[in-house]
Structure formats: structure tokens, C-alpha cells
Design goal:
globular
């Protein structure tokens, strides 16, 4: 393959990895559809094993286990994640949930800022418009 064609292919691949600056936001939300799609990949690689399909969490997540830690909660808008602003969501992803009584490890050294935002956009894509609006009223994007 000649160098020019190779560079064009590489450019097209890289262009598909990040949302375009002019890509529209998902209606009424802070994120783009590309972020949701990228977030699904991040979620499946890092979060799925604990937070399950469609961010539904673990059965019995409201009760501490034998070790006193809480199981992974749903992130799909049916638990308390929507009570936390963006800054806290990112902090929990970065530092983990142990300080909050859970067992989630921190992903600060594993995920970059874009990946953290993408995974948040993915699980927020399951939130109803009503839950999302309540999140915004609580200062969600702060």
C-alpha cells in the first residue's frame, strides 16, 4: 500500500475515535452519540463484570455483604448515581468506591479523562429524561 493511502486510512480511523467538534449532542444531554458508543467499549472492558448488562448493578446492592462492603449498585438511573454531580462521578471512577463503603477499585491510572467522560455518558444514556433533568437540577454537570 502506498504511503499516501496508508496515511489517509490512518486519518479516517483516528477521526472515528473521537467525537467531531461539530457533532450534535444527544437531545437534552451533555454528551454526543460517539461518546456513548466509546463509553460502551470502556464499560464492557472495565465495568461490566461488576455493574452488569445495561448498568443494572448487582442483586442486593442495598445491603452490605458479609465483609460489610456494599455490592456494585446500578448506574442506570435506578439507584443513587444520579444524585452525584459529574465531579463526584469522575472522582469515584478515579479513586474507587472504597471510601464510600464499596469495593470498586480506582481507575485513575487506567482510564484517561475522555474515557471517564465516555463511560459516564454510556451509563447516563440509560437514565430516563426525568432522572437526567433531576440530575441537572442538583448541579449535575458541576
Amino acid at each position: 500500500m502506498n504511503k499516501f493511502i496508508w496515511l489517509m486510512c490512518l486519518g479516517l480511523l483516528l477521526a472515528g475515535c473521537k467525537p467531531s467538534a461539530d457533532e450534535p449532542k444527544v437531545a437534552g444531554r451533555w454528551y454526543t452519540q460517539s461518546q456513548v458508543e466509546d463509553g460502551k467499549d470502556v464499560y464492557e472492558k472495565n465495568c461490566f463484570v461488576c455493574h452488569r448488562d445495561n448498568a443494572q448493578g448487582t442483586f442486593g446492592w442495598r445491603q452490605p455483604g458479609p465483609n460489610g462492603s456494599y455490592p456494585p449498585p446500578p448506574l442506570n438511573g435506578t439507584a443513587h448515581a444520579w444524585h452525584h454531580p459529574m465531579s463526584i462521578l469522575k472522582k469515584v471512577i478515579t479513586e474507587g468506591g472504597i471510601p464510600l463503603g464499596g469495593t470498586m477499585p480506582g481507575f485513575g491510572n487506567k482510564l484517561d479523562e475522555e474515557e471517564k467522560l465516555a463511560v459516564i455518558s454510556y451509563f447516563q444514556s440509560f437514565w430516563s429524561d426525568e432522572i437526567y433533568q433531576e440530575w441537572l437540577k442538583r448541579g449535575g454537570t458541576n
